[in-house]
Amino acid sequence: MRIVIAEDDSLLREGLALLLRAESLDVVATTGNPAEFLDAVGEHKPDVAIVDVRMPPTHTDEGITAAVEARRRQPGIAVLVLSAYVEQAFATELLSGGASGLGYLLKERVGRVEEFLSALHRVADGGTAIDPEVVAQLLTRTRPDASLNRLSPRERDVLALMAEGLGNTAIAERLFVTEGAVHKHIRNIFAKLDLPPDDRADRRVTAVLRYLEDTQRRG
C-alpha cells in the first residue's frame, strides 16, 4: 500500500509516517499544504491519501478541496480524511453517490492504533469508514424521522455500525451476536426503510445515507 500524507502539523505528520512505516506500509511522501499534496499524488500515484480537513492558507476546507481534486486527477485513489472536530456536512457528503474508498476519522482515533489501521485498510480496500464519535453525535443531536422510528433499538445499533463502515462480521463481533443475526437485522432495516432489492442502488449505502441525512437535517 503506497500512501501520501497531507498534514500541516509537522509532529502529527511525522508521527503518522513513523507509525505506518512500522507497520511495513509504504509512505511515499509527507506534505504540509494542498499544493505539495497534489504534486505528490501526481508524482507517486499512491493507493491511499491521508488528508487533514483544515490546511493552509485559511485552515477551513482546503484539505477536502484537495482530496476532491486528487480523486479527479487520479480516479480510484482512496482518501482517509482526518479532522480535529466533528463536521456534520462532510460526514454526510462522504457517502453521497455511494462513494467508496473514503473515510472520515477524528484525529484522536490515530492514537488507537488498531482501530486506525483497521479503518485505513478498510478504505484502501474500497470501503467506507466513519468515526464512531461522528455517528454518535449525529444520533444524539436529533430525533429520528417516522421511517427510522420503525427500527428497534438493536436495528438502530446495527445501522449506526453500518454508518461507521463496518461489515457484517465486524458488526457481529462488536455486538457479540452471530453473523446470521446481523444479516436478519439488516434485512429488517431494509424492509422498514422501504428499500427493496434494486440493482441500480446499494441498499446498504442508501440506508446509511437516510440515517445521516436525517440527523443532519434535524440537527
TrEMBL record:
The modification 4-aspartylphosphate is found at residue 52. PROSITE patterns: HTH_LUXR_2, RESPONSE_REGULATORY. GO terms for molecular function: DNA binding. It holds the Pfam family Response_reg. GO terms for biological process: phosphorelay signal transduction system; regulation of DNA-templated transcription. Residues 2-122 form the Response regulatory domain. It comes from the Bacteria. Residues 144-211 form the HTH luxR-type domain. Keywords: DNA-binding, Phosphoprotein, Transcription, Transcription regulation. This is LuxR family two component transcriptional regulator.
